[in-house]
Amino acid sequence: MRYSPLDALHRAAGAKMTDFGGWELPLEYGGDDGGTVAEHLRCRRDAVVFDVSHLGTVRVSGGVEVLQRALTNDLDRIGPGRAQYSHLLDADGSVLDDVILWWHGDGQVIDVMPNATNTSRVLDAIGGVDITADRAVLAVQGPAARERLGDVFASAAQVGRFEVMECSWAGAPCVVAGTGYTGEDGVEIAVPTDRAESLWKAVTSAGIAPAGLGARDTLRLEYGLPLHGHELGPGITPLQAGLGWVVAFDKPSFTGRDALLAERERGPHRRLRAIVVDGRRPPRSGYGISIDGVEVGEVTSGNFSPSLGHGIALGFLPPQTEIGTAVQIQARNALLDGRIVKPPFI
């Protein structure tokens, strides 16, 4: 089990801890104002801070060409001082991992951010140095995130959407990016581990409440964002997940390109769809999805939507399934009625 540099602060705040990808992390926080629903709504209406130190960081120096050959997106679409979402594929076109690239302003260094369990896989594919243990990452999210963060860390609050910049906290160098995973505005701050506690305390003292993995999952689900191991993974290609925009087919070569070209030519045999469910009962991963009494897929992610007050889900369905189609989801003891909608849910 691995632990965040902020582990002691989470426990002191009454966090309920859980295993996530081999890391023990906060699921939700205690107290009268805590819990997943309260943390979710606070992010939508104000600002929260997540500890996302479990995300990997593989630092690549002078390796743009290596990344161009290994990953699907095209770094020529951006430049230094920008962030980019991309995929690492297997030879069959399925997604080994989805990553965020932070390209430092000097143009020489790119930090590649894999999912927690995939850092070694990404390291093997692109080289570089694993610096995950050397830093913590705080994600400040919500419509009031920049205003509140500006009171304690003004330079970090100024980073723009999908921008990357370097600044300092308590005399130590930091890297700040504006990407997010909640659908709200915000920034992510990579800070050396020995400065992480002081930054966390400053952020929370500015009225930015902590939030855990439970809220992070419901927030991303409301925006229809994929999660590796659910909507991305073995046997799932970017085209099936509706993420063809991540693939730069005009690049001469990258791992999995030939398989994706063939799939694009024949058409994916399934597509990720968004489903709203009548009532508050949440659909869950693995529940079967039926159309006219015939099971045609299963839920990949499902939960209660705190913003909408009813259940929502994602799942892979036949590619011809249209928006508005009525579906039924087989829960443990009941059928949940729903319909296909265009994501995001909010």
The largest pleated sheet is described as: 6 strands, mixed
What name does CATH use for the topology of the largest domain? Gyrase A, domain 2
Strand order of the largest sheet: 11-12-13-10-4-14
What count of domains describes the coordinates? 2
**What is the arithmetic mean of pLDDT?**
96
Distance between the termini: 36 Å
Approximately what portion of the residues adopt beta-strand conformation? 25-35%
CATH superfamily of the largest domain: Probable tRNA modification gtpase trme, domain 1
What is the rounded Rg? 20 Å
Short description, anyone?
The protein folds into two domains: 2-56 and 132-222, Probable tRNA modification gtpase trme, domain 1 (Gyrase A, domain 2, 2-Layer Sandwich), CATH 3.30.1360.120; 244-341, Elongation Factor Tu (Ef-tu), domain 3 (Beta Barrel). The chain is 21% helix and 33% strand. The protein is built from nine helices and 20 strands.
